[in-house]
Amino acid sequence: MVQLYNCHPYGSQRIVPTKQVPEVFCSGRDCVFVTCAGGCKVEVFTVCKDLCQPLCSFNTLGKVIHMKYCDIGDYLVTIEEKNNVSSLRTYVNWRCQATGSSRVSVRMVGISKESLHSASARDQMEIIEMPLSEPPLCLACCPMRGDLLVGCRTKLIVFSLRYLVLLQDEPVLDFDRSLVLHVVGIVPSHITFCAGYIGISAELEVMIFKLMSEAYELPVAASPKPKGLEVLPEKDLLQSNTSELDDFVMCLRPVELVGEECKSCNIVVTPESIGLSADIASPFQVHHILYRRFAPDYTEGLSVENLRLHSLQLMPFYKTGSLIVADGKTASPKKEVLSLFCFFSMPHTGYLYSVGNTIQLVSVYRYPERSQQAILTPQLLHVITSNNLQCFTVRCSAAAARDEDPYIDTVMKTCPPVSLNICALRMQLFIGLKAIDHFKNYIIILTKADMEDVAGKGRSPRTPQSRRTVSVRSKTPAETESGWNLYVVSTMSTIQIYSELVEYSKRYDTMKTQGSIHLLSEAHLLVRATLMAPDSDELTDKDELLAAFKGSCASLGLCFSMLDTKHSHLALPYFKMSCLSVSEVLQRVLSSEPNPDYGKGFLFYLKHTLYEELEEPPNQDMALKVLQIFNKSEPSQLPHVLCSSCMTNMCPKKAIEYLQKLEGGSPSVLISLTKAFMALRMQDAELCEKEMQQHPEMLLLCGLVEEPRLLVGHGMKEILPTHMAYYFREAHPGLLVASAVALYENRKINLKEAEMLFKVLCGKEDEEDAIPQMLIDFWEALLSTYPPDSILQDILYKLSSHYVFQLCKPQHVCVRPLKSPEDLRNSCSHFGMISPWITKMVSAEPVPCHDCGDLFKLQSLLCGPSMDIASFVPFLKFIPDDNNHNLSIHLLCKTRMMDYENTMERLLDRCPEAVMEYARHEIKDGSQALWWSKLLPELCHRIRQSESESKFFISCLRDTLEVIKDELELQDFLNVLPDDGTALFFLPYLLSKNDRMIDI
Length: 1000
Prior knowledge:
With 1000 residues, the chain is α+β, with helices and mostly antiparallel strands. The strands form 8 sheets. The chain has a 5-stranded mixed sheet with strand order 1-29-28-27-26, with no helix packed on it. Helix 8 packs across helix 10 (600-610). Residues 3-477 form the BLOC-2 complex member HPS3 N-terminal domain.
């Protein structure tokens, strides 16, 4: 469906002052090239602002049948005919003809640089002959590399553009015949070439394919096929070439093939690399993109002219990169194809495809009358019929925007859909339109009208027979033509068309239809297309274009905000892209209607915006207006609205009044917390405490989880505690820590944000590198939630490093924690029971800091099952073992690493009273041999060496003998006893052992 709006995309028009009847023309950069009927001469006219003046002219070697201009290389390539022989020639350095130079040289393509003279690059035009084995039929130039594609009856030839450097600053343009594509099954009437993509078309067929090196192969993504098209199996396509009944004309059915399915059509393309360049000589593969075949259109009669495809075109959207230097010549910024679009047209229908990243039918254009030719530009599609120049909008920028950013359709940004209905902007009358071309902001059209055409404008519509007669009419000789003109029509700037579309959309404001949104979307896409074109002349006014882009976003956001449709949520991303503040959006919405009925889109925008931290929150009046909007539309959202940083200018007393009306007779924990939040902003701690006392702590915790912004705010991407968080730090520290743990568990904040909250709350400690005690309390409380192992080990590492820090500085400032070591052992299994031998060790010495309990917490942590002892070992070098408290940490680590022998030696040296407790608790199972192999000999040795402590060691020895006599056989027991011992000491154990053996 095409919507028609009478806008004015065309501005002034100028006549190209050619003196004879134009036959063939083309345009590019800043010039129009014209060849007249029967002549062998090219006239060049320069177009600048309101002037169209002759620049130069030069003779050709034959009659020009077809010609193309290429901006890269600034060359003109022609198909010429002389003596009924078609030739291909390229005209280089033709601009020197404008200086009065008449020197011309002719050379063959690929000639060696030694035979070239340096003067040829400066002051003379060169004609490069390009001999072909077949007559050339059509031409195409690559807008990215400047390469040339020539279509012949059975092949396509690629000529690669290159520069031969003769002098330091004088490169000479040349071509390398690099690739031949042998084509079977189609005779190309039109070809197009861009970035390795090639399109060929005949009367009813079109194929798009890409040339790829065999070194890598990229699959082509297929898209769903449009309805109404039939994909035929290969056998049906092959049967189309042979008719079973010679007396009948077989009409093929329309078909569309995508990707590798194209191989089943009757067109075969075989590449043959013949170039000499290293980057060209590698073998190529043909990757099929699209094949489309149409049924004949008999609405205009049986003339072939009325049936065939026309206007095949590939149009890229670029992304710019860094500067490059090619063959000694500094080039413009390197262009990389972001998206590629293909356009082709039947007489009454045009088709626009995206063929780059994905294959997608973007738009179908229905013309009101038979078209003759069309030109696609990034902003608009221009179509000529016999007497009308028509202008349609395109959807290329919408598709390219999604290729550039696949996540464009989010709450932060969006773009009008590719499926948006096409809009016809203008149908401008011209009599006898024959051809059209385009460059920059100009449309060039050729008109040729005879007296029959002029007189026919006043007649009634012609019958099919009369149309058929006109279509097959032979061309009138040039001398009998009564009127012809070659026009240069300037297109209006993007800003002017944008302004007209916006003004046009205001007609639909009061009707509340989709017409306003459609026109604003057209304006938005028009500006977006210009901004995405890196070589657009209009980018000199980029600030004005950006302002128009933001303005279109603001207008679209306003439209969607007032509608209650399934697309109303788009108000949010459009307002985001407009860069308007909340106050400015509010003013626009409030000024749109005297008593606006707020739509879903506007409320959706407000809800999401109120969850963000704004640099400029609304003033008090606007904040009150926001509160009134939600009080009217969604009263249940009032507590959440008041907790937003956007409402910092809201009067707290007014807020409490609204909350009291909302609460009614039944107190709500969220409303009570919000009222307490407002009371703290008024510095009324008594009212705050009164509101909190209405609910138990567990319900308060649930309310804080439901609305995290009561405690945590975000300013410039940083954590900012609220007034309530500071109040809880002093009055309810346990509730604050529990709330932070609950918020983390419910994924309202991450671990880093929770840690930052306590660091900001507690500020800097007196000691350098000290960790706030409330953060330690948070880590300890977090362990009771049994976090995943990755988080668990990180928390254990942080806690252990803090405990070590406290041990290494006995004179630290002690702050009583929320949980004692006993509380931690009872709340989670990560803290284990302290071994009895450790208790024995530390009982003889006073505890250095009993209030904080860091020593016992570290001992409990090392006794637990979760601590990775290997990660803790590096801390030992910071802990001196000058007392039993610190020594216990060292021995705990040795024990966890199963170094029992050294541990027992250290205990016998430093704290022998703990040896037996250690042995009973740690030496078990597979380590029991240490009782008789290590402990027994060591005790006997120390009894002999130390007479002062012999009584204590003898007691330990007796305990050891009690253990081993029950574990060993009699003979083994005798073997482990020392040979210099007295029988009186060991006799009771021997008798006890022997009696047991007798009983057995």
